[in-house]
Amino acid sequence: MTTVNLSSDNSKQEFFTELFVELNAPGIKDVVIIQDDVIVANWHTEGKDRVNYIFSCTKSFLSALIGIAIDQHYISSIDQPIIEYFPELPQLNEDRRFQQITIQHLLTMTSGIDWPPIDRSNKMYNEMVRSDNWVEFVLRRPLADEPGTRFNYTDGGSHLLSAIINRTANVSALEYAFSHLFPYLEISQAKWRENHGVSLGGTGLHMRTIDMAKLGYLYLNDGRLGSVQVIAPDWIQASTQSHASGHPEWFGSYGYHWWISSIEHNGYADLFFALGAHGQYIFVIPTKKAVVAFRKKPGRKQDVMIPKEILFESVLPCI
Fold first, then answer.
1. Dihedral angle sign, alpha carbons of residues 217, 222, 228, 229
2. What is the dihedral of CA 63, 266, 12, 208, to 10 degrees?
3. CA–CA dist 100, 67 (Å, integer)
4. Which stretch of DSSP H or E encloses residue 52?
5. CATH no. for 7-48+209-318
6. pLDDT digits 0-9 by tens, 137-155
7. How many CB atoms neighbour CB 142 within 10 A?
8. Is pTM, for the whole model, over 0.85?
């Protein structure tokens, strides 16, 4: 199955290689840029694009899988209360408000599930993955807010979305991706951490940087590759519109597991992006017909902004 039809421009790749070497940005390991169906940058400090951890960029792949599952009628609607998929919930959590949480609440990070803020969430994440059953860990959490009332970035909610794919399609999110998404993107090398057959929804996916960029390329083209509509265009449009406040000071507003930043917000361009800890990004800039994927070595928390600075100050002027 071949649907990704990307050519390469060696002269532009040489230009961007010189640019990134000159920038010598701390921790930047890989950069892939696609513009107008052409790979114009394919730069790697190790000389090769390796399968690596993409952290929370995983969430945007999961969002794509939810859209496909809706299109294939495994999931009927984002308005469905999640209790329809977790009948064990009343026995695990006495708070009846939990039963009001919908799939959309999980996608927009407005479920109300008690979870530390995005910059202090590692401890809770570690507690979850150390537990015997990650789904039950999340379902036992108290609620801090009424569902739908406040944005709070919650890895546990993403894991419930992965579990919903597992319980409807009877395969893990990784297996589902290898059947219904990855073949169209020509992704053959990927792995995803799991527990009890459920892929880790908020993070855990490993792949190459070019394969990260291919997801952005699919979204840039409204879910279509060649003659194949891989994801419904309505899902692409809904996913990349603002549905929650997000984190305006750092990243912008939030769609369906995608971050949204307008030119009014960032001062450079309208764009949406996937974001992983320490500075992993998939930027999609429709006005430039471009996708820019960054992989960065883990470092200081504030270094998460370095790829955005490179994008705005060095890459966008060149494309």
1. positive
2. -30
3. 21
4. strand 52-53
5. 3.40.710.10
6. 999 999 999 999 999 999 9
7. 12
8. yes
